[in-house]
Amino acid sequence: MKKKIMLVCVSFIMGISLVGCTTGQNTEDSGNSDNGNNEQAVTLMEANEVASMNTLVTQDTASINAQVHVFEGLYSIDQENEVVPAVATDMPEISEDGKTYTIQLRDDANWSNGDPVTADDFVYAWRRLASPENEANYMFLLDGTIENGSEIINDGMDPEELGVKAVNDKELEIQLEKPVPYFTSLMTFPPFFPQNEEFVEEQGKEYGNDSEKILSNGAFTMENWDQSSMEWDLTKNPEYYDADKVKLEDVHVDVIKEAVTAFNLFQSGELDQAEIFGEYVKQNEDNPNLQKVPDSKVFYFKMNQKSNDEDTIFANSDVRKAVAYAIDKESIVENVLADGSSASYGYIPEGFVKNPETDADFREDAGDLMETNEKKAKEHWEKAKEEIGDEITIELLTSDEDDEKKVAETVQYQLQEALPGLKLEVKSVPLNNSIELTRNSEYELAIGRWGPDYQDPMTYLESLRSPNNTNYESDTYDDLLDQISNDYGNDPEKRWQAMIKAEKTLVEDDTAIVPLYQQTRSLLVRDNLQGIYYPSFGASTIFKYATSD
Fold first, then answer.
1. Phi/psi class of residue 456: alpha, beta or left (left: φ > 0; alpha: ψ in -120 to 50)?
2. 357: which of 258, 392, 476, 493 lies 20 to 30 Å off by Cα?
3. What are 459-486's pLDDT values in tens digits?
């Protein structure tokens, strides 16, 4: 396999979903969000600013959530967590060898300016995704999947050679390099959404930077937003093909970063939905408005093994194993988060995918890796100190989100207690800054988060293929990923076993990362707000068919 260029997938790096906002109503009026004119409007919150509405530069959950409501791809995710047709009329017709996909498009799919959505809109968007000059964050998803994707990304082939073509306005044909079992679910992800060529070219580099430079084909249009906005509006799109089923007329979104603020605004009637954790969950265990939503997002430690081409302390495997064995994950989820999140003993989350032969959960088959063990932590630490010395300071990078900062403080205490001579300094920065620093490998130890882009373990495993921003390199691991991708596409059982082996290599044998916890979201939801659902991959929250009667 050709060497991949250095790209970083940072989708689903966000931990908090699109949930809340303010209408300016008083407590007595806010219950039905009716605003006195029978229009359904809700007040939701988001934990961070939307970085971009250009689907090529998607990098965080806030942006992905907004993009899923403003744009729509060939397929989407329904309430049962199943992939269903969206702009496509039906599921794809797939050739016997699994490499040719033929997809028909709806006749009534339009852009918000009235232009029809055509097969050429997908061809244009996917070629832009493949073009290295656009520096798309998810360009690597085409590497080794769609025909010629690798050559375009790595070897300078013309993006027009990408294996996708418009047979006519309403028929798309896709040629893959090899069978890709998860490809249909991949098409639910924003980087594979269409773009209107005339509009995008007219906006140039400003496309997607504010709500005036967006053309929607989804259930909502976006208003009053730019990249610095702490609030914005999503308004029902009358050109959407399924507009009759979209009941919400207006969704106003405020950025709220602290659980106490979200809780207080829900209590005062200014939010229709709020995400909480810790003590606020404990206080509301008997509250009928509390919903606990399992999530596939995994939080973990990233340990950077190189800086400026020099080995760091984390190039030492005993340091990595000492840190991994020292962390009491159960204490973190029970005493700090207290929101139903569970300790993670693997990179692939529980309840995400099942064995295609036996229907067993991945975690059941793979088992627990690197469980807390104080004795082993000390053994590895004492061995490491022979090389690194008795006194050492490490900086732990974290975002400025309330829950993540509290987790960092707890880990700081745990590691300093368990590993004599270690001083751990916590550095909290805004999420987008944290993303940028980790992307550029400008950190020592960092809390990372990974949520799945598509419904397959490879969405996790591929994130640590060499090169990556932890500077972890392993021929054994990369070879396993190559076997999974290139050799086992039509052999589900061999593919499954190879993915289990790859995860063990990553987490236990090499201890390249330290899984911390799998998120469960605790939400306070107004009684009248119905029909929101929470997929296990892609966007974290979908309210397209929600109501606020």
1. beta
2. 476
3. 999 999 999 999 999 999 999 999 999 9
